[in-house]
């Protein structure tokens, strides 16, 4: 099977600071892949680098058979990749409805209306609050909005950066359940960054561990869950 | 009331401090008066004036703090005002529009001239609102585009003999080009840094106009700029063949031209309003607003941030250019003096006072600021004082502008309703 997304030898810098040190990573079509790692390991940087901001200095990023390493961000995002960035970043003064429409930017209106219904079916809470300002939603609702907004572009590959950040366990289960449903029903491919390693590895098919900007471990999610060094570093005291 | 008893010393201290600051400010400014003496200026001390001013500040501050302390419980005052504005807003806009449309029917020359002035600033305010209010790009050099528009028309009319209606779009396009030129270097800047660069840009344009004497006439400006025509009919005071009065067989009269100019600027201002309202409903306008809210999120949604910013600058600049061309044709004379920083500041104040992003608020703010300051002209130098005071009061009472709050530009209509069976599943 050819990978939908593959990174080889990718490095990225913030000025003189090297945040990614030759990352190797593959995501196959229809898979949920999770990326776990400590704070500052470079997980968010990796997600952003896939989108071309910051741009990879060395290495190659191939998506759907095409090299996107040097493609401008706004064009990458039009080729079927969508991102729900770290910290949600919804538009606080715009309504839920407008936020969702922004996700379908540059797309046909009729198609957007149809996609929005699918998003509402996934997160009925949003449907009840279409006129409410994004900034006044609860944290969990904001996260649903961020994911819904990303889905509005009908992506093939969804990049989710810490969707469980600051949420109650029940809401986290809801959101993870929604991701699993989407993956099963539509075959959506997901790359998921998580601090909540236990739940992420239970949701995902495969996992990668990022340490100091480089991948140190990779494998089937169930295998990673069983490894003692993972349990010690990322699951200690968790469950 | 125990609350009052414990707070009283603090209140007295606060009022005392205010009085001290007032003394520092007024001791020399009010306390010493210059009079013409027999040979030179002499200083006359006025201690009582200082005492009065300081006492006024002390007791004024005291009264304000006490009012805050003992304000009746219940809805806080600003909230009530906001609600009132929201309710009144629905009626204010049509009434203001009706008055504006019919003004030339009953108002005299003075009021029409004032109306033209106010409408020019309304238009500038709406134009700048696209850049500052919608796209959130703080532009302190908006007058540059006003100047580009004015000089474009003046030069095109003088050197190529083109008419107003031909030059108007050209002036807009040229100003838009300058908007893009400003946009490119400031693409990566935000907030304070953007403000400084735009401020400098405004000054550069003015200094170039001032010094490029061969083209612009430098400080002497350009005079004899032709007036606009109505489908080829002129508005000359003497009547004569080809004039508006001659064609309709009525007495030539200067008010006709003023009324015509009034309708031109009213039309231009309404065009600006219509375009901004329309754009807000389109993906481009929504992208501007999203950009104001969160640039990184915009990038992650695949919005071309470069294009979005440049179009905001270009669109705002274009309306500034239109207003400039109108200014040139109305005054028939322009010079660099009309395009100083204070104009940019004035327009920005109108936008901020009006409540960033609110069309009605901007119009009201222009009416109050420009109309108000013209009407207090007799007060001479105290005018600026009142003006400053009014600004401070406004910002204290309504920190988010006259008409704050933003209504969504689009909302979910009936046709987006989803089937009940879809809603039911997965709810929990
Ligand atoms: N804009 C930036 N400028 C400079 N350094 C940055 C920038 N963004 C991130 N870094 C640095 O790059 C490294 C990786 O950051 P990154 O945000 O990718 O970590 P992360 O794995 O997502 O961490 P977390 O789990 O806390 O979100 C960190 O050392 C961080 O300080
Ligand atoms: Mg992160």
Automatic annotation (TrEMBL), chain A:
Family matches, as PANTHER family: HIGH-AFFINITY BRANCHED-CHAIN AMINO ACID TRANSPORT ATP-BINDING PROTEIN LIVF
Annotated keywords: Amino-acid transport, ATP-binding, Nucleotide-binding, Transport
Family matches, as CDD domains: ABC_TM1139_LivF_branched
Organism: Limobrevibacterium gyesilva
Family: Belongs to the ABC transporter superfamily.
Entry annotated with the keyword Hydrolase: no
Gene3D superfamilies reported for this sequence: P-loop containing nucleotide triphosphate hydrolases
PROSITE patterns: ABC_TRANSPORTER_1, ABC_TRANSPORTER_2
Domain ABC transporter residue range list: 5-237
BP GO annotations: L-amino acid transport
Keyword flag Transport: yes
Domain of life of the source: Bacteria
Protein's recorded name: ABC transporter ATP-binding protein
Automatic annotation (TrEMBL), chain B:
Keywords of the record: Cell membrane, Membrane, Transmembrane, Transmembrane helix
GO molecular function per UniProt: branched-chain amino acid transmembrane transporter activity
Locations listed in the record: Cell membrane
Domain (High-affinity branched-chain amino acid transport system permease LivHM N-terminal): residue spans on this chain: 11-101
Major localization listed first in the record, in broad terms: membrane
Membrane topology annotation: Multi-pass membrane protein
Coiled coil regions, renumbered to chain: none
NCBIfam families given in the database record: PRK11301.1
UniProt-recorded name of the protein: High-affinity branched-chain amino acid ABC transporter permease LivM
Gene name tied to this protein: livM
Spans traversing the lipid bilayer: 12-32, 48-70, 91-108, 162-181, 193-213, 260-277, 310-333, 345-370, 382-399
An example Gene Ontology CC term for this record: plasma membrane
């Amino acid at each position: 099977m050819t990978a939908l997304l593959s990174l080889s030898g990718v490095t990225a810098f913030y000025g003189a600071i090297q945040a990614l040190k030759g990352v190797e990573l593959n995501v196959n079509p229809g898979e949920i892949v999770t990326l776990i790692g400590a704070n500052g390991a470079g997980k968010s940087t990796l997600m952003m680098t896939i989108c071309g901001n910051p741009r990879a200095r060395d290495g190659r990023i191939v998506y759907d058979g095409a090299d996107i390493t040097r493609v401008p961000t706004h064009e990458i995002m039009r080729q079927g990749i969508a991102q729900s960035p770290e910290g949600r970043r919804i538009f606080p003064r715009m309504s839920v409805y407008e936020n969702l429409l922004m996700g379908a930017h540059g797309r046909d209106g009729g198609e957007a209306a149809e996609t929005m219904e699918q998003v509402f079916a996934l997160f009925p809470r949003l449907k009840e609050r279409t006129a409410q300002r994004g900034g006044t939603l609860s944290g969990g609702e904001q996260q649903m909005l961020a994911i819904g907004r990303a889905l509005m572009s009908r992506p093939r590959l969804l990049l989710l950066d810490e969707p469980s950040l600051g949420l109650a366990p029940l809401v986290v289960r809801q959101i993870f359940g929604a991701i699993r449903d989407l993956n099963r029903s539509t075959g959506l491919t997901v790359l998921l960054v998580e601090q909540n390693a236990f739940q992420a590895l239970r949701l995902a098919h495969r996992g990668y561990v990022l340490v100091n900007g480089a991948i140190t471990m990779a494998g089937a999610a169930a295998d990673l869950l069983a490894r003692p060094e993972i349990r010690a570093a990322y699951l200690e005291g968790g469950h | 009331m125990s609350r009052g008893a414990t707070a009283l010393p603090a209140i007295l201290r606060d009022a005392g401090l205010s009085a001290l600051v007032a003394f520092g400010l007024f001791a020399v400014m009010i306390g010493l008066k210059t009079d013409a003496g027999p040979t030179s200026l002499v200083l006359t001390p006025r201690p009582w004036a200082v005492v009065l001013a300081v006492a006024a500040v002390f007791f004024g501050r005291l009264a304000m703090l006490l009012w805050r302390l003992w304000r009746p419980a219940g809805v806080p005052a600003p909230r009530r005002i906001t609600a009132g504005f929201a309710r009144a807003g629905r009626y204010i806009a049509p009434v203001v529009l009706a008055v504006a449309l019919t003004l030339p029917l009953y108002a005299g020359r003075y009021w029409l001239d004032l109306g033209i002035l106010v409408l020019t600033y309304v238009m500038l305010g709406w134009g700048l609102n696209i850049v500052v209010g919608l796209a959130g790009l703080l532009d302190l050099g908006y007058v540059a585009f006003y100047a580009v528009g004015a000089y474009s028309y003046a030069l095109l009319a003088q050197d190529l003999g083109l008419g107003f209606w031909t030059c108007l779009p050209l002036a807009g396009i040229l100003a838009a080009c300058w908007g893009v030129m400003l946009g490119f270097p400031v693409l990566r800047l935000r907030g304070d840094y953007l403000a400084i660069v735009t401020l400098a840009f405004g000054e550069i344009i003015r200094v170039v106009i001032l010094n490029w004497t061969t083209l612009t006439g430098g400080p002497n400006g350009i005079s004899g700029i032709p007036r606009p025509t109505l489908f080829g009919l002129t508005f000359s005071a003497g009547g004569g063949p080809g004039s508006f009065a001659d064609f309709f067989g009525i007495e030539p009269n200067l008010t006709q031209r003023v009324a015509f100019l009034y309708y031109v600027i009213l039309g231009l201002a309404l065009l600006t309003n219509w375009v901004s309202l329309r754009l807000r409903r389109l993906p481009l306008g929504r992208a501007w607003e999203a950009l104001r809210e969160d640039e990184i999120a915009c990038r992650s949604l695949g919005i071309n941030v470069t294009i979005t910013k440049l179009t905001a600058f270009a669109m705002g600049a274009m309306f500034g250019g239109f207003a400039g061309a109108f200014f040139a044709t109305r005054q028939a004379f322009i010079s660099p003096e009309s395009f100083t920083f204070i104009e940019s500041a004035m327009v920005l104040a109108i936008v901020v006072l009006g409540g960033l992003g609110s069309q009605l608020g901007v119009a009201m703010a222009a009416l109050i600021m420009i109309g108000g300051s013209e009407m207090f002209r007799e007060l001479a130098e105290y005018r600026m004082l009142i003006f400053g005071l009014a600004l401070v009061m406004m910002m204290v009472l309504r920190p988010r502008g006259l008409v704050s709050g933003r209504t969504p530009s689009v909302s979910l209509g009936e046709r987006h309703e989803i089937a009940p069976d879809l809603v039911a599943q997965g709810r929990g």
